[in-house]
Amino acid sequence: MIFRLKILYLLPFLIGYYLFYLEYLNLSSSSDLIKNTEIFHNITDESKITKNNLNIQKKEIYVEKKTAQNNLKKVEITISKGDTMFSILKKFNFKNKEIVNIIDEIQKLFDLRKLKINEKIVFYKDAKDEVKKIIINLDIDSILITEINKNIKVEKKILEKFSYQESKEFYIQESLYSDGLKNNLPQDILIKIIKLFSFDLDFQRDIRENTLVSVSYEINEIKENNKIEYKDINYALISINGKELEYFKFLTDDGFVDYFNREGKNVKKSILKTPLDGARLSSNFGMRKHPISGFNKMHKGVDFAAPKGTPIYAGGNGVVEYIGRNGGYGKYIRIRHNNDYKTAYAHLSGYKKGIYKGARVNQGEIIGYVGSTGNSTGPHLHYEILFQNKQINPLTLKLPSGKILVGEEFERFTRSLKNIYASHLNLLYE
Ligand SMILES: [Zn+2]
User: Fold this and answer.
1) d(CA 300, CA 175)
2) Quick one: which of 51, 169, 192, 401 has the fewest CB in 10 Å?
3) Are residues 222 and 298 in the same domain?
4) 217/298 same-domain check
5) Are residues 330 and 375 in the same domain?
6) Ligand 1 mean position to 350 CA, how many Å?
7) How far apart are CA 72 and CA 165, in angstroms?
8) CA–centroid distance, residue 303 to ligand 1 (Å)
9) CATH number at residue 312
10) Domain count within the chain
11) Do the Cβ atoms of 288 and 382 come closer than 8 Å?
């Protein structure tokens, strides 16, 4: 009984303490509100506020500011044909005068005529349905922010990019393009692969089932606007029946980003003008008296005199499209390099083992040996370069000259290649 009475006596004190404690909480939270004086000044008339209701006033304003920042309603407008910034802003409850002011301010930093159809403009509206913020995408990583309060503030913001690498490996069953897409390779990267190998491969004809494609590339992600930008390929391999075409990205001493194979040969390798060692040019391209028939005839290739059995190299990466006897050419090989270029080799004494019709060969690989078969007066190689199936003069052929890395630059390339390859394998098998 006495105990209960004591509680009743204590109750007013407890309630008092509780109220005091609430007040204390209010005060402590108000310290955060000091930062919001800007809005506070705008909305309230300080002189009329007594000390007692100051906290309450501040608290209300605090809530309002929170709404203004976090609870803005996002409205996306897609620009359609015939839209102008004026017509778009007219969809919101702006007065004409306000629209003109907004456009004037934006125009100082961005030419609104550059807005394109299907681009999106994002509007943020407050609880009173008033537009407080407009965001225009300038390009993939920059936006224009227009804030509409008492004044209109326009600023350009560069969005932060997050760079990382991605690696993919897959087998082609149908085509590089369709299997690439099936394996979630971005279209941008597929186009870059096709371009990178365009001198080595004819993607229509050379790709066999189970061709392996392995690739690593750089990505920039812009989190703020959910955009992704595909950058350079770092590494790419295409392996057809065990024949590997492989390229590494490298920044050369001249400051160019280019692609090289493990031997440091540039992707833009030209077709060899002399596909054998230690040979002497014995007959040039052009009109000449034929040594056997005696008639004047167009010589559609160049002749290199060399001892019988001298190895002949493939003039470039490609596929053997003809191997065998070919009339006056004797033993003959023709290689198709890409859509435009072919090379032909005649009067051979024999073919290298393992070279057959459809075989894939790399530049510099031995394909056959010098001989004197067909219409020939002595051991020599008759060599032709064909552009769109017409013989052209190999010695005046102008192809982009492929750089070959040597010395310190090659050493630097080797180090960079190892890093690229290691991180590619890491990403594939992690
Ligand atoms: Zn000839």
Assistant:
1) 36
2) 51
3) no
4) no
5) yes
6) 17
7) 35
8) 5
9) 2.70.70.10
10) 3
11) no
What is the DSSP code string of 379-409? SEEEEEEEETTEEE-GGG---PPPPB--HHH
Say how many Å lie between the CA of residue 402 and the centre of ligand 1.
27
Give the residue among 266, 279, 225 at the shortest CA–CA distance from 363. 266
Tell me, yes or no, whether 285 and 376 share the same domain. yes
CA of 375 to the centre of ligand 1 (A): 9
Instruction: Tell me if 338 is assigned to some domain.
Output: yes
Residue 103: its H or E element: helix 96-107
Cα 334 to Cα 43, 140, 174, 357, 381: the distances in Å are 86, 48, 26, 9, 13
Same-domain check for residues 301 and 338? yes
Ligand 1 center to 392 CA (angstroms): 13
228 and 292 in one domain?
Answer: no
Domain range enclosing 188: 162-260
**Same-domain status, 195 and 250:** yes
Q: Are residues 248 and 284 in the same domain?
A: no
pLDDT (tens digit, 0 to 9) for every residue of the chain, 430 residues total?
Answer: 444 545 445 444 444 444 444 433 333 333 333 333 233 333 333 333 333 333 333 333 333 344 445 678 999 999 999 899 999 999 998 999 999 999 999 999 999 988 888 889 999 999 888 999 999 988 888 999 999 998 999 999 999 999 999 999 999 988 888 899 999 999 889 988 988 887 777 777 778 888 999 999 999 999 887 889 999 999 999 998 888 999 999 998 877 788 999 999 887 667 888 898 877 888 888 887 776 677 778 889 999 999 999 999 999 888 999 999 999 999 999 999 887 899 999 999 999 999 999 998 888 889 999 999 999 989 999 999 999 999 998 878 777 667 889 999 999 999 999 999 999 999 998 7
CATH number at residue 85: 3.10.450.350
Q: Is 355 contained in some domain? A: yes
The whole model's pTM is what? 0.57
Q: Give me ligand 1 centre to Cα 159, in Å.
A: 63
CA-to-CA distance for 20 and 15, rounded, in angstroms? 9
Q: Is residue 229 part of a domain?
A: yes
